[in-house]
């Protein structure tokens, strides 16, 4: 649903061979709608919960790779917004993303004679500047930005490139009602939506543009219907 469904629709306007959707919840109507949009593209669905152990993810990926032989792009897009659910927010938004990425390296890493690949991680503008009333959610998105930037720098070693797309506040069910950390602001959703937002379709259109640009290490901001490359300031360098 939301950004994920609209982005899938935009992708199907392109010359794809396969679109594989992994989700915890099966939505046959949505899958049927996607298949009808472009019959030339093979759209398949596999049930998947990003919070499962890496071994389980690897097992699923083996099945998918056996069927398709090659996968070019992995989009990590699972996410929840509820700072009452601290452990689950971290598990879905960050740990699951890291684990799924780690699992696909088994098939992509050039050190294992893999062909390389492209990781597209969905972050958030809160990864740059937090919505301070939801510090757990915002913290996971900052972690996604940092993790992905590291992946991009590791590309010469692994052959796997990476970038983030970071949507601004988008009118999806995710932001209609959500809990702040320790209830510091019970009206956080209402106050947030009082400011300018963007529809999911506008976000999806720029999302696919970012995928087509395919710039390793890019930090894309998708806000208010625009696509902008964010320049990250370096305040420290490990020197190694």
Major sheet description: 5 strands, mixed
Tell me the helix content. 40-55%
Structural class: alpha/beta
Q: Please state the second-level CATH architecture.
A: 3-Layer(aba) Sandwich
Describe it for me?
This protein is of the alpha/beta class. It has a single domain (2-229), classed as 3-Layer(aba) Sandwich (Rossmann fold), CATH 3.40.50. It has helices at 2-11, 28-37, 54-68, 86-108, 135-153, 155-158, 188-193, 200-213; strands at residues 18-23, 42-47, 73-76, 117-122, 160-167, 219-223, 226-229. The strands form two sheets. Strands 3-4-5-6-7 form a five-stranded mixed sheet, with helices on both faces. The chain is globular, with a radius of gyration of 18 Å.
Name the descriptors.
alcohol dehydrogenase (NAD+) activity; 7 strands; NAD(P)-bd_dom_sf; alpha/beta; 240 residues; Rossmann fold; ADH_Drosophila-type; two-stranded parallel ribbon; globular; five-stranded mixed β-sheet; 16% strand; Alcohol dehydrogenase; single chain
């Amino acid at each position: 649903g939301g950004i994920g469904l609209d982005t899938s629709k935009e992708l199907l306007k392109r010359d794809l061979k396969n679109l594989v959707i992994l989700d915890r919840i099966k939505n046959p109507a949505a899958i049927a709608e996607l298949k009808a949009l472009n019959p030339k593209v093979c759209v398949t669905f596999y049930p998947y919960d990003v919070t499962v152990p890496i071994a389980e993810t690897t097992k699923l990926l083996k099945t998918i790779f056996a069927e398709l032989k090659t996968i070019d792009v992995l989009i990590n897009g699972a996410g929840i917004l509820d700072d009452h659910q601290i452990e689950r927010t971290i598990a879905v938004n960050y740990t699951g993303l890291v684990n799924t990425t780690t699992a696909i390296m088994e098939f992509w890493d050039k050190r294992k004679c893999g062909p390389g690949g492209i990781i597209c991680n969905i972050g958030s503008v809160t990864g740059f500047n937090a919505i301070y009333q939801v510090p757990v959610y915002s913290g996971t998105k900052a972690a996604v930005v940092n993790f992905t930037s590291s992946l991009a720098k590791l590309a010469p070693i692994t052959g796997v490139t990476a970038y983030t797309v970071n949507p601004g506040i988008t009118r999806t069910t995710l932001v209609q009602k959500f809990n702040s950390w320790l209830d510091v602001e019970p009206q956080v959703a209402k106050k947030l939506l009082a400011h300018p937002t963007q529809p999911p379709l506008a976000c999806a259109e720029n999302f696919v543009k970012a995928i087509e640009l395919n710039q390793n290490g890019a930090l894309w901001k998708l806000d208010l219907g625009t696509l902008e490359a964010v320049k990250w300031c370096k305040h420290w360098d490990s020197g190694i």
